[in-house]
Amino acid sequence: MTEDIGDLSGDELRRALGWAAERAAEYLDGGVADYPVLPPVEPGEVRAALAASPPQEGEAMEAVFEDYRRVIEPNVTHWNHPGFLAYFSITGSGPGVAAETLAAALNVNAMLWRTGPAAVEVEELACDWVRQMIGLPEGFRGHINDTASSSTLVALAAARHELRGQPGADVRRRGMAGRGDLPPLVLYASDQAHSSVDKAAIVLGLGSDNVRRVASDDAFRMDPAALATAVAEDRAAGRLPMAVVATLGTTSTTSVDPVAEIADLCEREDLWLHVDAAYAGSAAVCPEYRQLFAGWERADSVVLNPHKWLFVPIDCSLLYVRDVDGLKSAFSLVPDYLTSEDEATNLMDLGFQLGRRFRGLKLWMVIRAFGVEGIRRRIRYHCDLARGLADRLEEHPDFELAAPVPFSTVCFRLKGDDEANRRLLAAVNADGRFLLSHTVLRGRYVLRVAVGNLRTREEHLDGLWRLLQRCAEEETS
Ligand code: PLP
Questions:
Q1: Domain membership flag for residue 364
Q2: Helices (H), ranges, 189-258
Q3: Same domain, 113 and 227
Q4: For the chain, what is the domain count?
Q5: Residue range 193-208: average pLDDT?
Q6: Ligand 1 — pocket residues by CB below 6 A?
């Protein structure tokens, strides 16, 4: 360091970035696959391997990198591993990694247009590119949040602000406590919807008891008749239905709610419709999957996470709203120190957070580097891999599919009890080459394989299939 009150010198930064670039490339270009997907580490071991107190004087970056190499890299769960097939497997792709580095160097806080003109406009442009790619109508305006949990919270806060059926309720100003004029507000989502809906109800003061979990059918899709009944019962009991969350690609099985029928009901009942397409929305880039999404163009808000299946490094969640002025009136609050005269979007007006990272850069760079056709090829390949595994499972006498496979996630079971399936999952994961996860469907323990990683190939699914059969034989013999 040239002086002890400043930053790394240019040369030192070059060396540090060179090391980081070399390490990242080594890791992604093969090194990651040499690790077990799940690190062999117990809670507390990572911390114990690092200094308990901070250094009084700065250390050479070489020493810091040495600890990264020795303690940190080997002890992450390797989400970029080709055998990572758990939860929703994702990829922090090369263009995204490069973009994150540049965004960190710029260190823009894009709260206002004037605090980051390029950051705001690239975010708006990239959101519009995705809108075009997935076929949402022009009226939808997108912006980026960290996660779908935040996007859904923001969308439902806008729904509560507009509060159809109770105009002028002005919850923003008057709050909800002790108001005789305001009935309990109710949210509707299927029994398969993500827990972020309940969390939003908790944060918004609706209360988790006021989330109706509507029954789903044999294919885990929300039953619109059950939804209509729930809404009618709440109205009859003096409660105020506020919004419906339809999920296109649920977390456990990736089932697809019948969003057109749900949109009909929302129109009839004057309810806000929020569509959670956090995972599966990316599949709408492929025209052949579009029919599964028919009706989402009638939503008030739609969430899609490019960090799930558009190969953008976490975090990146897009929220599209039909009425951006409504969103602004729910959230805009400009203190004296943040006023500006620009005729432009100020991202701080679109949600509860002020500071914003330059997330649009990685989305824009990934789309440019892969192209729309390139993204389609990758998504189709993942769906083909999943279909291939599903076919094998269906044909095998000891396995059964636990749900339809609309996209790239396969839910299955060993024909046997829950304990046998738990042991099967533990045996497969203990091998180290793959990581699968589980869920519970209609009370039964189920294994999940989610394909979404750019490094996963047919040979990996073949290897997994051999391992699954071997572990199943050991279980059944
Ligand atoms: N919605 C769905 C359908 C999901 O599957 C998930 C997470 O897997 C979420 C929302 C929450 O996503 P996030 O982690 O971005 O909040």
A1: no
A2: 196-203, 224-236
A3: yes
A4: 3
A5: 98
A6: 88, 147-149, 194, 196, 247, 249-251, 276, 278-279, 305, 317
